[in-house]
Fold this protein.
Amino acid sequence: MVEGGLIDQVEVTDARWVAPASVKAFEKKLVGRRVLRLGRRGKYFVAELDDGSALVMHLRMTGNLLYIPEGDPVPEAHLRGQIWLASGGSLAFTDPRRFGTAELISTPDALQDYLGARLGPEPFDEFFDGPYLYTRTHGRKTPIKAVLLDQRVVAGVGNIYADEALFRARVAPQRRAARVTRAQAELLTETVQDALNAGIDAKGASIDDFRDAYGVKGSFQDQFLVHRREGLPCPECDTPVKKIRCAGRGTYYCPACQKN
Ligand SMILES: [Zn+2]
């Protein structure tokens, strides 16, 4: 649908989306390019283009990339930019809080360097294992939840999945990273994958973490174990789920099951 598509029009509706590049330069560089691949790496959408350059869109907190079939209405609220394909459909980037960015990277090598400096391994990479996570928690005073949300440690684990993975591992989100044992680090790499798999099976949660490039609303939020379940019984022990602020995010956990 998008891959193989020729970009025939680009409109940036919010200059901040592409800053520091100018709107004009950004639009000019994209028009006439063909999209070879569109993929997601962590909180980035990466469109590789036929001249070796790449369009890298960082979603930040509230950004979203939607595919709009020809003739379908475009969500005008919070629209930051739109890219039309010669085939008729378009990609729309929406972002209520306007922290999301779009950037053109000129070569494949530069793209590797750019992502390598910002992203840790993907959760399903073989490198994301217990010993690796243990080295990234060792000696750190921040809560373990902040480590899981750090894109340089592991790419693409959002707020929902961090809560769900910590619950599955029975580790309290506010536990100091330095106090996480080797066994817990090992378990957490597995439960991060379990939580993500549960989300993928349900086509992603439509709340704040994930919506796929085609705008499909998921049903994962109906299956959360603790996230957004404040006051409801823990699925393991019936203790009411508690909501706290941790790593700067609304955080849900079971005070009985999850060890601090
Ligand atoms: Zn419990």
Summary: Residues 102 and 185 are 34 Å apart (CA to CA). Residues 206-216 have pLDDT under 50 and may be disordered.
